[in-house]
Amino acid sequence: MYEIALSAASCLRSNTRADVAWSLSTDIAKYETDSSSVMMTPGGGRIGNLMEGLFEGQLADIASRQLPFAKAHNLTVGPLESLVSGIAIGASARVVVSPAHLIPIHGWEAFLEKKPVVLRGAISDGVVTEFEAFTEATIDRAPATIVEMFQRGEAAASISADEIISMFAPRTKFVIAGNGPIAGALGDVARQMGWEVVAESSPVNVAGLTATLSSMDCVVVMGHDVEASSRCLESALQSDAGYIGALGSKKMQENRAAWLAFRDVHDLSRVHGPAGFDIGASSPHEIAVSIVAQAIAVKAGKA
What we know:
Elements lengths: L4 H9 L5 E8 L10 E4 L5 E3 L7 H9 L6 E6 L2 H7 L6 E8 L5 H8 L4 E6 L8 E4 L9 H9 L3 E4 L3 E6 L4 E5 L3 H12 L3 E5 L2 H8 L7 E4 L4 H13 L4 E4 L3 H13 L8 E2 L11 H16 L4
Parallel strand pairs: 10-11, 10-12, 12-13, 13-14
Antiparallel strand pairs: 1-2, 1-5, 2-3, 4-5, 6-7, 6-9, 8-9
């Protein structure tokens, strides 16, 4: 929900219809811990990427009905989804689809601030007509089971005949601007930390990704093209990312600094370059470990 919060809030302010969807459970192993979500608008717009778009067609069909309530839907992988994804026919997931306005505005505000949120919806005749949102400011008014879930601080969900409960916990987003062996190794190590990894080489796409970052998030810029990597670094500096790392030789670092200075960007104090602690790393995975360790230390105020 964090990745779609800005768009959802914009739709709510402009009284534009939007439907959001998130997973409650699935028997597909690779998505068992998937905490992503997607927002859909009547014109066919889509923000977010629930289960890597596995049920995109089915969700779009549900959203097109513009239902006034939220409901848990059982979605099944059909022949087309199986052909595209390689997932066996018959695999399934239980997904909530809800009008965005059924979630209280203070819940969306908490998502925007990357705070933990628990949504609770009472089920009547199989549907939910509104959700309660419990945040740090209101969790003391929640039932004991929800307080316990909130205190664990981990994404979780449950559904019964009476209610839907979903706990959303923010994850560090790790944006890798570039590609190659080190980028792949960085992704491997960051995923082991439970972070959300996004790798992108297009400066335009990197700018879009960094626009929503918070102090708990990270950006690492790499690449041999001075202009492309400098544009990515400029976007990172314009963001609220808590850690910004830059890979490259001393000459590359100097060239990027000159490119940024020409565009009146002079304060590079947030940039850690070359990225990573000096631990004698040589292989891509060793370098990745040194960078992730540095990111952890910087975000914790220990570096």
